[in-house]
Each structure stands twice: as C-alpha cells, then as structure tokens.
Amino acid sequence: MSSRQRGRLALWLLAGAALGGTACALAQAGAGLQPPARSCPAADEVTHLHLYGLWLARFDGLPGTATLWLEKSPSHAEGVSGSIERADQRALVAGDVDEGDFTLEESSDGQRIAATWIGKVSEDACGMEIQGTWTRAEDNTSYPFVLRKQPGWR
Question: What is the mean pLDDT of the chain?
C-alpha cells in the first residue's frame, strides 16, 4: 500500500469515527477487511424486549394468517401484552418468554382464555421466529404455529 493510499485510508477511518462507523466499514471493505458479524441472541437469551413489535402467525391446518402486535405489559414487568387480528376478528394477548420457552394467552372478551400458545424460540433465528402449538380452549383442538417477527416498528 502506498503512502498516498495509507493517507486516504486514515482519512476514511477518521471520518468513520466521526460518522458513527459507516465510513469505517466502507474503508475496511476497501482495504479487504470485513466488518464484525451482527450480534444476535441465542434462543435461550431472548427476553420480552425482543418480542416487542409486529409478528405474522401461520397455522398448519387453518386458513389464512394472523397478525400480532406485542408491547410492554402494564402488569408484568418481564411480560408482553397486545392484540391479535385474524380476518375480521380481534383478541387480546398476554404472555412471556423464559430461556427460550414462549407462552401466550389469548382472550376474545378480556375475561376468559380463548386459546394458549406454547412454543420455543427457534435456534439460529436471532429471536425473530417462534414455533409451537396453538390450542383453542373451547374444544381443545391444537394446531402447529410459526410466528415470524416483521421488520420495523408500526
């Protein structure tokens, strides 16, 4: 590398420090270096904080999908609460995750449990996928589900 190239690289590195690392990553790429891999939690490290946001649910054996919105629970410090929408139906949900084990209760009227979700955070999915079984309380029928976190906050 010539002294001129080293000088340019030094300028890029200084600019990267000033601009929060973006220019630094470009300078590293130009020098043949790779930026560090994105950190993601293991399944058993996922907490309620990772659950906040919009999720899409698919059920084996049931038509259509459902959308869940999960946020901080007002009554359980390490839990979540929110809503689920299926076609023209809406219900309330509340639950938590503990060492990769996911539990969610669904209520159509805010009083009685209409369904339960029992699952596990998927390994190697960075807390963005949960698989398990959804069970309707009324008749105890169960269906496998997959929840996938949707990008961005809505």
Answer: 82
